[in-house]
User: What shape does this take?
Amino acid sequence: MFLAERLLMIKGSSANIGEVLDLSFACPRVRVRIMEAWQYYKLCDYRSC
Assistant: This one.
């Protein structure tokens, strides 16, 4: 999330791309600012499902 523009979510055991998530964090990305954003926590919750 700190370096990429998009996240590819893997689906199933055959490692197919399930979904592409665009990251809306402004560049240059500062870790502290990203971790303060609500979008960061929404992505973390989505990833853990």
In short: The chain has a mean pLDDT of 84.
